[in-house]
Amino acid sequence: MKYYLIAGEASGDIHGANLMKAIKVIDHAADFRFWGGDRMAKIGGKQMMHYRDTAYMGFWEVIKNLSAILQNLKFCKQDIFDYQPDALILIDYPGFNIRIAKWAKSLQLTSKIIYYISPQIWAWKAGRAKVLKKVVDEMLVILPFEPDFYAKYDFQVNYVGHPLLDHISTLERETSLHEKYGLSAKPIVALLPGSRGQEVINHLPVMLSIVPDFPQYQFVIAAVSTLPDTTYEEGRSMSGVRVIVDDVSLILRHSTAALVASGTATLETALMGIPQVVCYRGGWLNYFLAKKLIKVKYISLVNLILDRPMVKELIQDEFNRSTLIKELGQVLDPGHQKILSIGYHALRDKLGNQGASQRAADKIFKSVR
Length: 369
What we know:
The structure is a single chain. This protein is α/β, with parallel strands linked by helices. It contains 18 helices and 13 strands. Strand 1 (2-7), helix 1 and strand 2 (31-36) form a beta-alpha-beta unit. Helix 1 (10-26) crosses helix 18 (356-368), helix 4 (66-83) packs across helix 5 (94-106) and helix 5 (94-106) packs across helix 6. The chain is globular. 44% of the residues are buried.
């Protein structure tokens, strides 16, 4: 059967690749056409667009690039129409994918429209649940509280578990970060400033400002190849700092603690058992609008799933050098790490077992065959 997948971010590329692998287990003749990244490309099929060319963050960035976004939409619609897939699989990326779902449903294409990894509409624009109910044939969600959220809109969805558990279980455990990159024996503090240019600009300088205050540690920046090398120039020029590209999971596995930009990375850090401080700073306009619109108590998935402030969140003005020094010192304390370990164990219990990718693939295959 033919599958058309659309992932617009790095996390979507990870989960899209694992889903494609799982589909191939039950559909040996699977033919893939997709928007995604390098991980999905390694599985096979025809890549139509890389997510680095489609990822726009924040209200102002979207407005500036509106013409390119509209062109991408037009191209994508024509490509789907020409391909006529059995399954159209939309992976998160709501601003783009919901528009594609509406268009596909309006044309009454024979494709099954499947949304894998729900947009975070429970945080803002909850009314989109009514739209999704009309235009999506199957909604596969990965967070334990999402079925109850959608039930408020009389929309039955399928909870398959979180695919990060699958991703983490497949990592090479024998590889040593220190040996692979020639690091010193000092313990590591990981810096995860985000995967988009504006995120790194907003977060990395503050993260790097505290390096001299922790001389007993080495700091490793988890960089991404989709951004120019110059994005990390400040880190490369600092003593005690290393920049490692496209190896975030291995960095985390060997870290003592981490400073993490809000997003999926906070959950991956927690599932690896790494103490963390969650950081967020946006442009004043983005932050003002987000504060008015977003309806959740926390910005990290860890705290949202546990429904309590398990990890410290430093937001906007609170994300500064002095506060960051204090909070990193706190999570490096062995006593605090024991408390975090208990919370992380509860998080794993809530997310369930591995196998989310295969469960999602099974549901998709059954719906289209």
